[in-house]
Amino acid sequence: MEADEIKSLRYSRLLDYYSGCLTEKQAEAARNFYNDDLSLGEIAENSGISRQAVRDNIKRAEAVMQSLEDKLHIIEHADNYYKLYDELKKHLTVLENELKPGCNITALHSRAKYTLGLLESAGELF
């Protein structure tokens, strides 16, 4: 993935969380640019403003969203939540599959203890 694509995905994701903190013009310009993949010229034509005004709105939106993420870490917390969810789901699926007659109780106990530890550590993530 190229640097521009990574940047676009990052700002598209920031928009998901922080678009409500932007002015209407900033949010619209950023959504059109990052989510709808419109050029500055297309956005300017659709909005009836100059390309420079569109660029300025996008740059201000980027700065506001990045500043908020730097302070609040919402995306970081969301990523940690999803990683924990995936890990818990994996371990609970194994536990469910191993809960059969003749199962290894020691192994089940060990996995259950580990899974509970993951849940307890979740408090530190949020």
The CA-CA distance between the termini, in Å, is: 30 Å
- Report the sheet-strand fraction: under 5%
Tertiary shape? elongated
Protein structure class: mainly alpha
The CATH topology of the largest domain is given as Arc Repressor Mutant, subunit A
CATH architecture of the largest domain: Orthogonal Bundle
* Residue-averaged pLDDT: 89
- Strands, count: 0
Task: Give the SSE string.
Answer: HHHHHH
Largest sheet: none
Would you kindly provide a written description of the structure presented here, covering whatever features stand out?
The protein is an all-alpha fold and 126 residues long. The chain folds into two domains: 3-71, Winged helix-like DNA-binding domain superfamily/Winged helix DNA-binding domain (Arc Repressor Mutant, subunit A); 76-125. The chain contains six helices and no strands. Helix 3 crosses helix 4 and helix 5 (74-98) packs antiparallel against helix 6 (105-125). It is elongated and about 75 Å long. The two termini are 30 Å apart. The relative contact order is 0.10. The mean pLDDT is 89.
Provide the descriptors you would attach to this structure in a database record.
mainly alpha, Arc Repressor Mutant, subunit A, 2 domains, 6 helices
